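Give me the fold.
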Amino acid sequence: MSVIGWRQWAVDAHGRLRPAWTPWSPFPPELLLWRPDGLTQALCLRAQRDDLSTRRFRIPLAPHPRVPSENCVCGLYAWSSPRGLADAAAPTWTSRPIVVGAARLGGRLVVTERGYRAQLGYPTAVFDPDGVVSPAYAVARYLSWDALVAEWHARDGT
């Protein structure tokens, strides 16, 4: 089963999508990247810490099958509705551009009061009026939030 989730992304200097609410350091550069060439797979960072005092992390050879876990905060986050996303505060930790949009989420899903935590995801549509998202992402691009919502909210069946 898959669902459409609504989320914010911070856009790095190369136009790549990254979490808007998670500071990127001290993590390895590719760890918190929404992949432009395929599915993004959630990792449990709590399970991957080698040593918090040195802030070293290891990326597993095979993702853990229980991500996201009911007893953790891991997973790819998204709101269940565009209204939830529209009502959300803007991230304050970064000065990078923020884009919003829809992502297809699947694999293991944890449903929460406001949205989802997913094992797998990929961006499907972005509101990108300034053209900051890399062309490497095969996503629908919208100059209007209303146009994006009109098309993608109808697809998610809610």
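Residues 42 and 106 are 11 Å apart (CA to CA).
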